[in-house]
UniProtKB/TrEMBL annotation:
Domain P-type ATPase A: 31-95
PANTHER family cross-referenced by the UniProt entry: CALCIUM-TRANSPORTING ATPASE
Keyword terms: Phosphoprotein
Protein's name according to its UniProt entry: Magnesium-translocating P-type ATPase
Pfam families referenced in this protein's UniProt entry, alphabetically: E1-E2_ATPase
GO MF term set: transmembrane transporter activity
Keyword S-adenosyl-L-methionine: no
Regions crossing the membrane: none
Length: 95
């Protein structure tokens, strides 16, 4: 019974440490998008980097290689575009 209690305690401590480490890594990764927004009182537009949870319908975003944006969007202009849809289609190659 003592061994089970010690094992359970060590498992709990290890799980707490790994959760803390995972949360620290999430905080270090910036989930941002480059979006076209009004940047001054004159109504001039400019590119701003904002957190992805602040995206709203109608935003114009600029994507670069490797960007991942969890949002629906319409492609206005593209050059050499590949989209990884594996999570949606199950295909292993980019479409």
């Amino acid at each position: 019974a003592l061994m089970v209690a010690i094992s359970t305690l060590l498992n709990f401590i290890q799980e707490a440490r790994s959760t803390k480490a995972a949360d620290a890594l999430k905080a270090m990764v910036s989930n941002t998008a480059t979006v076209l927004r009004v940047i001054n009182d004159k109504g001039e537009n400019g590119w701003l980097e904002i957190p992805i949870d602040q995206l709203v319908p109608g935003d114009i975003i600029k994507l670069a290689a490797g960007d991942m944006i969890p949002a629906d969007l319409r492609i206005l202009q593209a050059r050499d575009l590949f989209v990884a849809q594996a999570s949606l289609t199950g295909e292993s190659l980019p479409v």
